[in-house]
Amino acid sequence: MTENTPKALVQVNQKPLIEYQIEFLKEKGINDIIIVGYLKEQFDYLKEKYGVRLVFNDKYADYNNFYSLYLVKEELANRYVIDADNYLFKNMFRNDLTRSTYFSVYREDCTNEWFLVY
Question: Which residues contact 108 (CB under 8 A, 6 or more apart)?
Answer without folding.
Answer: none
